[in-house]
Structure formats: C-alpha cells, structure tokens
Amino acid sequence: MGAYILRRLLLIIPTLLGILIVNFALTQFVPGGPIEQIMARIEGEGDAFKNIAGGGDAGQSQDAGGEGGYLGARGLPPEKLAALEVQMGFARLVCADGYDGTPNPTDCEKQQISAPERFLIMLGNYARFDFGSSFFNPTKTVVDLVLEKMPVSITLGLWSTLLAYLISIPLGIRKAVHHGSAFDAWTSAAIIAAYAIPSFLVAILLLVLFAGGSYWQIFPLSGLVSDGFASMSPMEKALDYLWHIVLPVAAYTIASFATLTLLTKNSFLDEITKQYVMTARAKGLTEGRVLYGHVFRNAMLIVIAGFPALFLGVFMGGSILIETVFSLDGLGRMGYEAAVNRDYPIIFGTLYVFGLISLLVGILSDLMYVFVDPRIDFEKRAG
Q: Percentage of the chain surpassing pLDDT 90?
C-alpha cells in the first residue's frame, strides 16, 4: 500500500500543473481582464480609483482627469494605468542605475511581462504557497480571504453531508428490504421530485414559508450568527448558530441526498441476492443479523468510502446560490465574484488549493476503501 500511496502523491505534481496550465491558458482568451474591470468600475465614480491603485487624494484624482473633469469621465491617465499593470503583475519597472526609489521616477520605464513568464512566476510563488493579494482588496491576502470565508462553507458542507448520510442510509436500506412495495414507490417519487427541484428554489420556498415571508417567522432571514453573538454564553452561541443554519442546510440537503439514497438501495439489493446471504438465512439467522451482520459492510463499501469526496464536493462547489439566497459570505460566493471581476490571484489561488485538496481526498477515499474492506489491495491491482 505504501508504494501505491507514493505513486499517487507523485502524480499530484503533474496533475496540478496540468490544471493550472489549462486554466491559465483559458484566461488569456477571455475578454475583459482585471484592468478593464477597474476601468469600467471607475466610470462616473470620480476618485474611487485611488483605493485600488494607491492614488492620491480626491483633488489629485480630479486633476488627473483633466481640467473641469474627473478621473472616471476621462479614463485612466497613462501613469495610473502603468501603476496598475505593475501592481497586478502584467508589467515591471526597469530602472537605470542609481535609482533611489522616489515615486514616479523619470529614469524607469515599463516593461511588459509575457504570459509564459507570468505563469512561471506564479508557479514559483505557489510552490511556496504564496498566493498574493486580491486585485480589488489588496489589504488582504488570498489566504486571509479564504480563511475568512471558510466557516460558512464548512458549515454547509459538513452539516449537509452528515444529514444526507443520516437520512440516506436508513432510507436506502428500508427501500431495499421493501423493494417493490408501496413504501418504495412513494419514497422514490418523493426523492426524484426533491432531486429535480433546484436547490435555490427550495431555499426561496423555505424563506417564504419560515423566515418572515407570507407565513411564519421562525428562522432568521440571513447570516450565520445574530448581532451580539460575541457577548452570548457558549450555550446561547451554539443555539444561535444552529438556529441560523437550519434553513440553508435543509435547502441543500433536500436536493442532495437522492443519489446517495438510491446508491444505498442498489448496493443492498445487489448484496441481498448473493449466495452468502441465502446461506445465512438458511442457517436460521434473523433478518436483522443478516442485514447488519453480513450485508451492511459489503453494501456500504462504496457509500462510506465516498464520504470524503461527497463532503469536498459540497464544500467547494455547490453552495453559490444557497449562499446568495441566504446572504452568507462563503467560498462559493467569493469564487463567483472573483470570476466575474477577473480577480486572478483569488481564482488561481483557490483553484490550486482546492485542486491539491481534491487530489489528496482521492487518496483518502482509497484508504477508506481499504479500511472498510481490508481485502482490497490497490498495489496488486496496479501491478
């Protein structure tokens, strides 16, 4: 098993490299880069640009736009545009010998950095886990932003995954035992209906029904905690936290447990028809002993071993609309806004981190298979 894990770890490097190359190449063909986004933002906003590019005060910004105008109306002056390109890594300043570091040097010229060179610079930084800062929030690094948004995504991912397993496994087993019955038929219809409804529509329906829409005001409308959360006792904090996550977790779970339920049912149905189950029944074992003493471990192999991947899927990608509906500031919403704004440090930084985590979780899933069923040997299969 050690050799197999080592091979999988070594494959992480070329896989990550391929992911970054493909996505970096795609961004070179997407119209509207980050500088274009900033220029669009400052149209009609006067000196708002100074917070991004580190420009001067309001009066200086107005002067830059020309007499009687302002920066947004006149566009970016060349020196501001050059400062932005240098700040965002699209260009560098090449200065003559003796440059003393004074602002706006006359003895420096801007030199564009080619896309391949920018990619190599990015790889060198990422190898040190240096992901830089956001183009539009340069006071915070990408790592700081991810850590700031992570509690929301962990909340949705962990609770939704646990709840899906707690519902799906017992329900799937019962459907397998009563296959073809009225219970199996109406639960299948309910599961398919829940799966067919988009999660954001479920979220809106829950808000209308239980968060002060047209019916009951039971749960909060938005946010992860209440005002004054810091001053609450530990018990009050726990209850307030649970009170806030009921609706978003329910909205996500309703639309996510269908596949897991049907997978559990089909796994049990496949095992129940095997010879060892008929032998166990012929020996006089009770149905419960047959199901949970013999069938369960074999049937649950795929379901249990897939837990890390399922959690990671919910954690990383599926919560954008849920976070938007419930006004939760998580990783999904941050990633969407970064893609819209062409905030490349956030896009590539999160892509690198999540890609690395996904590959490590793949190895963890294989280890889970071996833990659930020690008969599995990936080294022999690879050989």
A: 1
Report phi then psi at 11, rounded to 5.
Answer: -70, -15
Q: Exposed, middle or buried by CB within 10 Å (0-12, 13-18, 19+), for 167?
A: middle
Q: What is the per-residue pLDDT across 124-160, written as a single tens digit (0 to 9) for each?
A: 888 888 888 888 887 888 888 888 888 887 878 788 8
The residue assigned the tokens 């929301």 is 152
Cβ-based burial of 104 (10 A; exposed 0-12, middle 13-18, buried ≥19): exposed
Instruction: For residue 101, give both structure tokens.
Output: 């570091």
Cβ pair 362, 9 in contact under 8 A: no
For residue 33, give every residue at least 6 positions away whose Cβ sits within 8 Å of its Cβ, in sequence order, or none. Answer: 342
- Tell me the pTM: 0.69
Q: Which helix (H) or strand (E) holds 209?
A: helix 199-210
Residues 19-24 have a mean pLDDT of 87
Is 316 strand, coil or helix? Answer: helix
CA distances from 110 to 65, 75, 78, 273 (A): 22, 19, 11, 73
pLDDT at residue 56 tops 50: no
Residue 96 has pLDDT above 70, yes or no: no
In DSSP terms, 298 is beta-bridged to: none
